[in-house]
Amino acid sequence: QTVYVLNGPNLNLLGLREPEIYGSDTLDDIAAMLEDAARPLGIEIDMRQSNHEGHLVDWLHEAQAEGAKAVLLNAGAYTHTSIALLDAIRSIRTPVIEVHLSDPMTREAFRHISYVGMGAVDEVKGLGAKSYLVALEKAAAL
Ligand code: DQA
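Above: inputs. Below: predicted complex with DQA.
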């Protein structure tokens, strides 16, 4: 069973990008952490990142077509703007769990709306890199 872990814009710069908010782990560090945690659960991680909204839409469709168990989605700023991502989440039966390193609700008002959250089955936020681990545990339990 595969869990897709889809990451949106600017997350390729994790580790360098505003480390006081997002921490010092890179996306590769997070991928390695997830793979270690997934192995004993019998889950395979398919970790991807794109700065392009449509790639994320295509990968959500692919997750369903490939029979993925779940998708962990950190859509970055598209979380707060993308009706296309919400529609994609609602267009597939694969469960999507929303993930954030920071807690957008404690930040600027423009981060308080989450289109992703309107379609996701669950969310994990504010735990830094650990948000991804907790989300994987939730995905495994689905
Ligand atoms: C983020 C939170 C978003 O508001 C922001 O645009 C990001 C990262 C997070 O993981 O904390 O790019 O999704």
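The chain has five helices and five strands.
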